[in-house]
Each structure stands twice: as structure tokens, then as C-alpha cells.
Design a protein that fits this description.
Number of strands of chain A: 12
Distance between the termini of chain A: 31 Å
Order of helices and strands of chain A: EEEHEEHEHHHHHEHEHEEHHEEH
Number of helices of chain C: 13
Structural class of chain A: alpha/beta
Largest interface: A-B, 49 and 47 residues
Largest sheet of chain C: none
Distance between the termini of chain C: 41 Å
Shape of chain C: globular
Oligomer: heterotrimer
CATH superfamily of the domain at 97-299 in chain C: MetI-like
Strand order of the largest sheet of chain A: 6-7-8-3-9-10-12-11
Chains: A alpha/beta (333), B alpha/beta (332), C mainly alpha (301)
Radius of gyration of chain C: 23 Å
CATH topology of the domain at 97-299 in chain C: MetI-like fold
Helix content of chain A: 25-40%
Chain lengths: 333, 332, 301
């Protein structure tokens, strides 16, 4: 499988009223052809910013990429001009957001909005763009009719609106889709429908995806690989079944133990401390103040990703042994 | 002992669709809802948006006027009371809302926020107030340093603790928790659930827990009532229902919830169709448009809840029918 | 005694630390806006001048209204820095004395407008129903007329005087605030913290006073600062057409009216008064803009 998207050591900061927020501190992720990667973490971990950075959607003067690289099919995205990124968006990489109501223009019919996107990227005639739009609507499970095209966003239910957004994202046939919390605002049964749709898109259209979510269950059920983020970097990455059944990083372990699934409330574990302030983040490993297994080296040096199993990487001195190589210690439960 | 008895509760809203008197629509938010909450236990009302769980909770709190039905709290029928009597009766029922920030007046300090119920219902000197507020804050894991700060200076989890402290100020018997952790991160949610569980044990609290996250419900609830479009479709002991759900909607709801357990990968099921509007609910059984086992009687007649073991199920299907096949498997 | 006092002060500081920090922050934000600060300086300057007028005016008795016919219609000179008017009165002294009435009228009437309009709006918005409907219809009637015309009608009815001009302005302006606050009350009453207050048994009027009104203050304060300028203009306008301050009192609007006949040759009689009005109203507008930046949640942390 070729690598479609590679992000290496991405560092990003942005200016806020109170100071400089070091939002990303070396993010490494990769997405292969036809693969679904889950980018999982709690609020403030930087998962959404990573998605926006890939697409070049961050506000230039305030947000600044201070290191690392993003490459798509071998092309360096950070070196591209605004115009080139604009071309890329939609045609190669598209994005779907959390709130479908906010993503759609309320005064234009949905058919019109999708056709607009198609015409901009493919430069085709009106008739062809209409056909493409109808095909896209059918792909996402909406009735491919004139009636659907003529409707306005508010006339759809939440789940159907999200499908419209996905139709818009796919209409140009982009091989990679980034979905930022695509089902968070939806009801549980509708969420299942949308997740199923994402899986079908990979199956039938070969669309690779990055699903950004705070819901570990969503990642567990739909993703091939999962990357767990904490305070601006990926702490653990690997095949989803492997990472969730044999988590290595203390944060991943602790996070899994917080989940109420299958536990009574009194059995729940909690993570001591709070999410760090990224204006003055902890030195070394950003998780060390809250870590049960903190070692002397942790506050001084930032751990680099090291392989612990087949395609399973962890950034942690305790998990991988202090010298950075996978050690034979007891795997965490 | 049952603390709260709700019988045939019905809440309808009238909304204006357009201009003119003729275009009034009726929102059937809650219809014929009956349930009981046992002292010291947690009853969870579960369902998706529009199912009426929040409205039912608001009716219990007297924030919304019921169109029909009775609510008995601590052996008192709430409908016959005057405003003043009702205020006294409701002292023993308090609420914690979903959004920690909008449930606290941003202009007030933590002290004033937690002291407000005490100022409204009890006569205390300023010093007594401060002492009591501090005691309450300590119960939820906050301290003196937080006393004079404002909500925006705190995290979501801390604000929710403030809201809980406030809810406990009048030493209520019943606490209505309306999605108390939905707006919080997973690790913060765990802390709040542990706190709520601990408080329930220590203070013998009774919870009416509104939620849409089934994992959370599973960890907290003793009893469960599943709602769909204003009606309860299944209710009973939570463990029972989770183990073997009977109503097709309950099955769909449980199977749609994505499990983080890697061993349960691929068990997610999809139920097609959208939640219909509460303005024109379907005739007969409200779930019939989406039900894979729909029969003719389901379209004609609304099923009454009948006992199946320890629970009540509102469905026309025979008791031994296997509903576990509801929903189609997810592609993987 | 000293120790107890310092202890109490320290205690007060602790209790209000949040408000103190917020006030400090707001002041810092406000002072970033140079124009707003300039406006504030002008306003403070005008207030000071109005207070110490009798001591700094070169010809206080002329400021009060005494004529000095022998020196009438003189151009600005070293003896009369801004010239003299048609009665020989020193224009500079008149301008200084003339500051008092606009300031008095604007502060008092704005305060009265707010004290009347805000509570009515809060109650109407919170309760809704019939009371709200009636109040809104009354407001609609008032707001259908241009405020100045309405004020003129009221004064004509009551008789021309400063006091009646103030009453007329209050009667014409209160509906704006009622509508403003009513709108805020309608949106606030749905907020969870209001519902929580009801569950706690807090009485309605306490809810309005403790939650609804304080949370509506932001837009009200901004509106007030901008309105003070408008009220000054309205008062000057009323005086200009003879329905406000009566001669020989020094009032800027009146001075413009008196200078009307002489505008071509002895422009200084009305011009300086007009300039004073312009600068003061501008100052209030600038301060209002500055306040809006401070109170606008978007520019906050």
C-alpha cells in the first residue's frame, strides 16, 4: 500500500491573547491508500488543528508552522502556494466538519452548492456537473433527484445534512477525506448510519480517510489504524485492535480505563491532574506530570516514536525501555 | 420506597408555524409516560433527540406545565399545589444541567452561585452561608481558593462540580441530572461519574439521569427507561435490559453505540431511517416506520406496555420473538 | 482599630478579586483605544470647566446673562478671546457657562430614561404574555415618531423650560431601552442558569434583579454613552427653537439660535457654541465606541 499522506514532526504554534500556544509539538501520522486512520484524543490535544494544517486552512499570521513536513503523494504541501493548495482541496483532499449546518450556506440550494464545487475543480459543463452531483448524492445514500438538489440545508435532518456535506466532499473524487468529528453532533442511530457510510465509501470508492474523534468507540469500530494524541503530539499509533487490546503508552492505558463501557461507576479509573496549558507546557514528555510510570528522564527529554510491535509505535521511555528500544517488560493490561 | 411516581404524563407544546391563528402545530413531546424512581437508586431516561426525555425531566421539576397526567413526589401530588406550596415541595428536587458554563450565571462568583439556593430558602447569616458553601465545595473536591472566582476561570469539569455543589445545597432527596457529562472530555467525565456515584452512596441520593450515551448509563443506572418519540418503549432493571434488550428500538440503540472494546469490533449495527418529527408522529406504534418486524396491527394500534419478566415493553410482537436481529451489520 | 480596618479591606479585596481583575483588564483594553481616551479627556475637561466656570470665566457676570451693550458684536480680540455677542456678552464666558445645562440635562435625563426603561423591559421580557404585548405596543407607538418631534410635542404641551425639556426627552426616549432590555430578557430567560434558579426556589423578581438585568448591562451601557450625545443634541435642538433654556441663561443651543441672524458677519456668536456641542457629542461617541470594544465578548480573553 502506498503512503498517501505523511506528516512528520509537525510543529505548530499560534498567537493568542495570553501568549504563544505551542499547539503541535511534533506530530507524526501517515495514511495509506484506502486506509482509515483514526486520530483520537481529548479536547486541546491538537487533532483538529492537525487536520486543518494538512489542508492549509489555518489563519496565516496567527498560526505558524515552525517545523516538520506534510507530504501528499510525494508533494510537499508546506511549500505550496495558496493557489496551489486551493486546487488541491476538494480535488485531492477534502474535509467534512462537525456541524453540517454551519458548513453549508443556508441561502443556496444544496444542489447548487455541490455543483459549484464540481465546476470549480473540474471545469466541466453545467450538464456534466449536474450529473456528477447526482452521482455524489446517490453515493451518500440520498435520493438522486432534482427534488433533493433543489432543497435548502435547513430542510434536511442532521444526518442527511452530514450526507450532503460528504457528497460535496466526494463530488470531485478526492482520494483522501478528512472528517473532523463527523458524527459528534448526531444521534446514536444516525451516527451508526454515517459511520457505515464512511466504511462503504472506502469499500466502493477507495476513499482513504482520517477520522478525527474524541470517541474511542467510533475509532474502534471504523478505523484500521489509530493514532492517539495528547497535548500536541501522537503518543501511540498502530492497528486499532492491537492498540486498544494492548495499549502501551500510559495515557492510552489510562484513557481506556476511563471509559464507562462495561464498568460500573465505582470501577472507573481517573487520570490525576489536568490537561496542560500549552502556553507553558511541561518540559520533556508533556504527559509526565500526570504519569503513573514517570521516570527521571521523562521531564528532560521528549520521547521519540519507537516500534513496539508490528506497525505499532509508542513515544514513551517507560513503554519502550529507557534506551528507546522495545524491551521485554510486562505489557500493560 | 418510591420517591417519584409519574403516571400518564403528557406534555404537548403549541408552536406557530406561520402567520395567523390557523397555523398552530402541536408538538407531542411526551405522551402517556409512566415511571417510578426508587429511593437511593438511579433511573436513567434514555433516547435520542426529540424523544422527550428532557421534557419529561423538566415536567418533573415543574419547569414545564404538564398537559395531562400526575406527578407524585414524596407522596404529594404536585398538580394540585399553589405556586408557593410547589416551591416548598420542590426544595427536595434539584437539577444539574448539561452545559456547565450556561448553567452558571457568568457574573456571579462561585460563593454566590452555591449560596443562591440557601439565600432563597433558608435564613442564614453571611458567616454561616460562607461556612456551608465551603463545606459543599469540599464535598465536590474544590476549595477556598475557588470561592471568589467566576465560572469562566474554570474548566468544564470544575464548573460541573460547582453545579453539583449548588444542587446539593438544600440537601435534596432527588437530583435530576440532565446529560451531566455529555459536554465533558472522557477523562473528566470519569471523574464526575465517580463523584456522582460516591455522593449517591454517602448522601443516599436518588438520581433521575437523562442521557443519550449508553455506556455512561450502563455504568450508573439501576433502572432504565428507553424513550422514542415521546413514549417509553421499554423499561426495567438496567442490567436486564442491557443483557437482553427486547424492544426492536432498544436493540437498535444498543447495537448502534460504537463499543471501544476491540473484541467487539464489527458488532455495530445500523438501523436505517430518520427520527420522525414530533409534530406529526406516526399513527399506531411510533416506531413502526423504522421497525424491521412491522405488522399490520403496529400501524393501526399503539401498543400498551405489558410486563415481560421484570420489565415493561410496549410492543405488539409476541414475548418470545427474537428481536436481536434488528439492524444490519456494519461493513468492515 | 487600624488592624481591623486593614483586615476588612483585605477581606473585601479577596471577595471581589474577580471583579477587580476584570475591571483592571477592561481599563487596560479601554486605554488602548486612543480615540476613546481622547473622548474621555474631553468629557472630563468639560465637566471640570462646568464646575469651576464661575472662577475661570473672564467675565462671569456676562456669562450669567448681564448685558454689556457698549461692546456688542466685537470680533475675537485679546480682550474678548472669542468675541462678544449681540448683547455685548463675552462669548468665551458664555460658552463656559453654557456647558452646565447640556451636561446636566444629558446625565439626569439619561439616568431617568434608564431607570424607567430598563426595569420595564426586564419585567416585560421575562414574563412575556399580556404585559409584554401591551408594553411592546406602547413602545411601538412611541418609536413610530422621530424622538425629537415627539419631544417637541411634549414640550409644546408642557410649556418651554429646561425642566419640561428634560421631561419631554425622558418621555420620548425610554422605549428604546425597554425594547433593548426586553430583547435581552427574552433570550436570557431560556438560559439554563435561569431554569436552575427557578428550581432552587428563587423568586421571580429576584431572578430579574440578580440575573437578567446585570447580564443585560453591557449593551445598555454602550447605548447610554452613545445616547448621551444624542440627548445633548436634542436638548440643544429644543433650546434652539426656543422650547428649552430661555434667555438670558447661557446655553449652547440658545447661543446658536441667538447667533443665527448674525451668522454672515459676526459668525463667532453662534459658531463657538456649535463647535462646543460638536466636540462634546463626538467625545461621547468615541467613549461609547471604546466601551463597546471593552464590553464586546469577542474581544475578551
Amino acid at each position: 500500500m502506498d503512503e498517501l499522506l505523511t506528516v512528520r514532526g509537525l510543529k505548530l504554534q499560534f498567537r493568542s491573547m495570553r501568549g504563544v500556544v505551542k499547539a503541535l509539538d511534533g506530530v507524526d501520522i501517515s495514511v495509506h491508500d484506502r486506509e482509515i486512520l483514526g486520530l483520537v484524543g481529548e479536547s486541546g490535544c491538537g487533532k483538529t488543528i492537525t487536520g486543518l494544517a494538512i489542508l492549509g486552512l489555518l489563519q496565516k499570521p496567527q498560526a505558524e508552522i515552525t517545523g516538520g513536513e506534510i507530504s501528499y503523494r510525494g508533494q510537499d504541501l508546506l511549500a505550496k502556494s495558496d493557489k496551489e493548495m486551493q486546487d488541491l482541496r476538494g480535488r485531492e483532499i477534502s474535509m467534512v466538519f462537525q456541524d453540517p449546518l454551519a458548513s453549508l450556506n443556508p441561502v443556496f440550494q444544496v444542489g447548487h452548492q455541490i455543483e459549484d464545487v464540481v465546476r470549480i475543480h473540474k471545469g466541466v459543463s453545467k450538464r456534466e456537473s449536474r450529473d456528477t452531483t447526482l452521482a455524489a448524492l446517490a453515493e451518500v445514500g440520498l435520493p438522486a433527484t432534482d427534488e433533493t438538489m433543489k432543497r435548502y440545508p435547513h430542510q434536511f435532518s442532521g444526518g442527511m445534512r452530514q450526507r450532503v456535506c460528504m457528497a460535496m466532499a466526494l463530488a470531485c473524487g478526492s482520494p483522501l477525506l478528512i472528517a473532523d468529528e463527523p458524527t459528534t453532533a448526531l444521534d446514536v442511530t444516525i451516527q451508526a448510519q454515517i459511520l457505515n457510510l464512511l466504511l462503504r465509501l472506502r469499500e466502493e470508492l477507495g476513499v482513504a480517510q482520517v477520522i478525527i474523534t474524541h470517541n474511542v468507540g467510533v475509532a474502534a469500530q471504523t478505523c484500521d489504524r489509530i493514532a492517539v494524541m495528547y497535548a500536541g503530539s501522537v503518543v501511540e499509533e498502530g492497528p486499532v485492535v492491537e492498540v486498544l487490546s494492548r495499549p502501551r503508552h500510559p495515557y492510552t492505558i489510562a484513557l481506556y480505563e476511563c471509559l464507562p463501557h462495561g464498568h460500573t461507576a465505582s470501577e472507573l479509573r481517573t487520570i490525576p491532574g489536568t490537561v496542560p496549558d500549552l502556553i507553558s507546557p511541561p518540559t520533556g514528555c508533556r504527559f509526565h506530570p500526570r504519569c503513573k510510570h514517570v521516570l527521571d528522564v521523562c521531564p528532560t527529554t521528549k520521547p521519540q516514536p519507537a516500534q513496539v510491535a508490528d506497525r505499532h509505535w509508542v513515544s514513551c521511555f517507560w513503554a519502550t525501555g529507557q534506551d528507546g528500544a522495545a524491551s521485554g517488560h510486562e505489557a500493560a493490561p | 420506597m418510591s420517591l417519584l411516581q409519574v403516571k400518564d404524563l403528557t406534555v404537548h407544546f403549541h408552536i406557530r408555524r406561520g402567520l395567523g391563528k390557523k397555523s398552530m402545530d402541536t408538538v407531542h413531546a411526551v405522551d402517556d409516560v409512566t415511571f417510578e424512581v426508587v429511593e437511593g437508586e438511579t433511573l436513567a431516561l434514555v433516547g435520542e433527540s426529540g424523544c422527550g426525555k428532557s421534557t419529561a425531566a423538566r415536567a418533573v421539576l415543574q419547569l414545564v406545565k404538564p398537559t395531562a397526567g400526575t406527578i407524585r413526589f414524596l407522596d404529594q401530588d404536585l398538580s394540585g399545589l399553589s405556586a408557593g406550596q410547589r416551591r416548598k415541595a420542590m426544595r427536595d428536587a434539584q437539577v444539574v444541567f448539561q452545559d456547565p458554563y450556561s448553567s452558571l450565571d457568568p457574573r456571579l462568583t462561585v460563593h454566590d452561585l452555591v449560596a443562591e439556593p440557601l439565600k432563597a430558602q433558608a435564613r442564614m447569616s453571611a458567616r454561616e452561608l460562607e461556612a456551608r458553601v465551603l463545606a459543599l465545595l469540599e464535598m465536590v473536591g474544590l476549595g477556598t481558593q475557588h470561592l471568589w472566582r467566576r465560572p469562566h476561570e474554570f474548566s468544564g469539569g470544575q464548573c460541573q462540580r460547582i453545579a453539583i455543589a449548588r444542587a446539593l445545597a438544600l440537601e435534596p432527596k432527588l437530583v435530576v441530572l440532565d446529560e451531566p457529562t455529555s459536554a465533558l472530555d472522557v477523562s473528566v467525565q470519569a471523574r464526575i461519574l465517580v463523584l456522582l456515584d460516591d455522593l449517591q452512596r454517602r448522601l443516599s441520593l436518588t438520581y433521575l439521569f437523562i442521557a443519550h450515551d449508553l455506556a455512561v448509563v450502563e455504568s450508573m443506572a439501576h433502572a432504565l427507561a428507553v424513550m422514542y418519540l415521546g413514549r417509553i418503549v421499554e423499561q426495567g432493571p438496567a442490567a436486564e435490559i442491557f443483557r437482553a434488550p427486547r424492544h426492536p428500538y432498544t436493540v437498535a440503540l444498543l447495537r448502534s453505540s460504537p463499543s471501544p472494546d476491540p473484541e467487539e469490533r464489527g458488532t455495530m449495527k445500523v438501523l436505517e431511517g430518520d427520527v420522525p418529527s414530533a409534530v406529526r408522529p406516526p399513527a399506531g406504534c411510533r416506531f413502526h416506520p423504522r421497525c424491521p418486524f412491522r405488522m399490520d396491527v403496529c400501524v393501526a394500534e399503539c401498543p400498551q406496555p405489558h410486563a415481560v419478566g421484570e420489565r415493561l415493553v410496549a410492543c405488539h410482537l409476541p414475548d418470545d420473538f427474537d428481536t436481536s436481529t434488528t439492524g444490519s451489520k456494519v461493513l468492515l | 482599630m487600624e488592624v481591623a480596618q486593614t483586615a476588612r479591606l483585605a477581606d473585601w479585596r479577596v471577595r471581589h478579586q474577580s471583579s477587580i481583575e476584570e475591571a483592571r483588564y477592561n481599563v487596560r483594553v479601554f486605554f488602548k483605544d486612543k480615540l476613546a481616551v481622547a473622548g474621555l479627556i474631553i468629557i472630563v475637561f468639560t465637566i471640570v470647566v462646568a464646575f469651576i466656570g464661575p472662577w475661570i470665566a473672564p467675565y462671569p457676570e456676562q456669562g450669567r446673562g448681564e448685558s454689556n451693550i457698549t461692546e456688542r458684536l466685537q470680533a475675537p480680540s485679546s480682550k474678548h478671546l472669542l468675541g462678544t455677542d449681540n448683547y455685548g456678552r463675552d462669548v468665551l464666558s458664555r460658552v463656559i457657562y453654557g456647558a452646565r445645562i447640556p451636561l446636566l440635562i444629558s446625565f439626569v435625563t439619561t439616568a431617568a430614561i434608564v431607570l424607567i426603561g430598563v426595569p420595564i423591559g426586564g419585567i416585560a421580557g421575562y414574563y412575556g404574555g399580556k404585559f409584554d404585548e401591551v408594553v411592546m405596543r406602547i413602545c411601538d407607538v412611541f418609536l413610530a415618531f422621530p424622538s425629537l418631534i415627539l419631544a417637541i410635542v411634549f414640550v409644546a404641551f408642557l410649556g418651554p423650560s429646561i425642566r419640561n425639556a428634560m421631561i419631554a426627552i425622558v418621555l420620548s426616549w425610554w422605549p428604546w431601552y425597554t425594547r433593548l432590555v426586553r430583547g435581552m430578557a427574552v433570550s436570557l430567560r431560556e438560559r439554563p442558569y435561569i431554569e436552575a434558579a427557578k428550581t432552587m426556589g428563587v423568586r421571580d423578581f429576584t431572578i430579574i434583579g440578580r440575573h437578567i438585568l446585570p447580564n443585560s448591562f453591557g449593551p445598555v451601557i454602550v447605548q447610554m454613552t452613545l445616547d448621551i450625545g444624542t440627548v445633548i443634541l436634542a436638548a440643544a435642538g429644543l433650546s434652539f427653537i426656543g422650547l428649552g433654556a430661555q434667555p438670558p441663561v447661557a446655553d449652547w443651543g440658545l447661543m446658536i439660535s441667538e447667533g443665527r441672524e448674525y451668522i454672515l458677519d459676526q459668525w463667532w456668536i453662534g459658531a463657538f457654541a456649535g463647535l462646543a456641542i460638536l466636540i462634546l457629542v463626538l467625545a461621547f461617541n468615541l467613549v461609547g465606541d471604546g466601551l463597546r470594544d471593552v464590553l464586546d465578548p469577542r474581544s475578551k480573553r
